[in-house]
Amino acid sequence: MLVIVGYVVVLGSVFGGYALMGGNFGALYQPLELLIIGGAAVGAFIVGNDAHAISATLKALPTLFKGTKKRDKALYMELLALMYVLLAKGRKDGMLALESDIDDPEKSPIFSLYPVILAEVHVMEFLTDYLRLIVSGNTDPFEIDQLMEHELDTYKHEAELPAHCLTKVGDALPALGIVAAVLGVVNALASADLPPAVMGALIAHAMVGTFLGILLAYGFVSPLAQLIEHRVGHSLKVYQCVKVTLLASMNGYAPQLAVEFGRKVLYSTERPSFSELDGHVREVKNR
After folding, report:
1. Does residue 181 belong to any structural domain of this protein?
2. Average pLDDT across the chain, whole number
3. What is this structure's pTM?
4. What is the DSSP string of 5-39?
């Protein structure tokens, strides 16, 4: 929704300002130049990307115009509470005691208390995979840290692929606008025998290509790439929270301190305070 609002502001500011200066909107109506710019941009996008990148970008575009499901403070408190319970059980009964919970979370009496986390399929997969490695024994915290970092790098690279594709298209649009403008100028100069008024109109129409290329690049396409990057950065936080908490536990910290490590990596807008998390953990202990 905010994307549409932003586009309305862009169009209102640009064309509203043009109208206030007495501009002629008829001169801006150049569908053929838009065809040249848009068609060349789509063609360059196809040439510069493989089928996976094209598919990922096409799937990402519709989601940008919808509100994204945000992970709020309540979800992070549930996640930290779940990890506290799991780590406390592992500390008390041995990590092998978690094996049955990890292998079938849907039937686990621990995981079943946290349906919000169970619904986060990818987060659950990340959490249980690394708990399984820890339970298997002979795991070095440094090696687990490196493995987690590699997995998160892979996730980030894959999730940001549409952003990189859109950035390249946005970077190309001003130059493609110049291509359209040059073609318009060539067309005008080929009709040099026309009256000055007609020639002036043809030159004005040609310049619209440069205007459209720049407007489409910086007002429409590049902001979408930036939005994708913001969303990817936000989605990574939940995995970083799991990572830091598990590594703190592997390095010998008590479960309550380990979840405090995880709390610290969260953004301030979603991060529960120390007292909020401590109170929630106390409630969990009394269940």
Report:
1. yes
2. 90
3. 0.85
4. HHHHHHHHHHHHHHHHTT--HHHH--HHHHHHHHH
* Residue partners of 51: CB distance under 8 A and separation at least 6: none
Q: Does residue 56 carry a pLDDT above 80?
A: yes
- Give the type of residue at 210: T
Q: Tell me the DSSP string of 27-93.
A: HH--HHHHHHHHHHHHHHHHHHS-HHHHHHHHHHHHHHTS------HHHHHHHHHHHHHHHHHHHHH
In a domain, 61, yes or no: yes
106 domain-assigned: yes
> In which domain, by residue range, is 178 found?
29-287
User: Percent of the chain, pLDDT > 90?
Assistant: 59
Q: What count of residues does the chain have?
A: 287
| Rg of the chain, C-alpha, whole Å | 27
Say whether pLDDT at 286 is over 70.
no
What distance in Å separates the CA atoms of residue 91 and residue 162, rounded to the nearest whole number? 42
Q: Considering the domain boundaries, does residue 196 fall inside one?
A: yes
Q: Kindly report which listed range (55-64, 115-124, 276-285) carries the lowest average pLDDT score.
A: 276-285
- Residue 110 pLDDT > 80: yes
Q: How many domains does the chain contain in total?
A: 1
CB atoms within 10 A of CB 55: 13
Short-list 179, 162, 205, CA closest to 52:
162
C-alpha distances out from residue 11 to 130, 146, 216, 220, Å? 49, 47, 11, 10
